[in-house]
Amino acid sequence: MNHQSALLRPDWTPATIALMILGFVVFWPLGLAMLAYILFGERLRDFKRDVNQRADGMFAGCGRHRGRYRQHFSTGNVAFDDWRRAELERLEEERRKLDEMRAEFDTYVRELRRAKDQEEFDRFMRDRNNVKRNGDGGPPSEFKTP
């Protein structure tokens, strides 16, 4: 799950701002890298997940072919070869189930993120409409100082 309480999440937190400023002071590319992390960190995490899924898909095919190739070899013991074949099939079925579960979980997390984004957007629109209704262009009345 996404740990929003983490100190260094890709967001405008005091820690990330301080690290960005320190990075610019020490060596400007470090500050630029921290700025990129703040701005694009969530997208990079999604990009990394997508790349990992594609790589897993490519190499999973290689593993299946290698497994089929090894199944042609026999130890000479029919009982052991039958047991080995059954175990490999069972493991392949477990791998398939795990891959399906992983895909379902990724979809679930993506939908949670989408719901969170929608809720934040709706809150923004409500606050924006409240400001327009107040007519003075300032913050809503609950944020005004007495």
Topology, pairings included?
Layout: H1 14-26, H2 28-71, H3 78-134
Describe, in plain words, how this protein is organized in 3D.
It is a single chain. This protein has 146 residues and is an all-alpha fold. Helix content is 78%, strand content 0%. The chain has helices spanning 14-26, 28-71, 78-134. The mean pLDDT is 80.
Query: Main sheet, how many strands, which sense, barrel?
Result: none
* Number of contiguous helices: 3
Order of helices and strands: HHH
Low-pLDDT segments: none
- End-to-end distance, in Å? 41 Å
Instruction: Kindly state the percentage of residues in helix.
Output: over 70%
Seen as an oligomer or otherwise, the chain set is: single chain
Class from secondary-structure proportions:
mainly alpha
Radius of gyration: 26 Å
Mean pLDDT: 80
Shape: elongated
Content of β-strand? under 5%
Counted beta strands: 0
Keywords:
single chain; 146 residues; mainly alpha; 0% strand
Summarize it.
The chain is mostly helical and 146 residues long. Helices cover 78% and strands 0% of the residues.
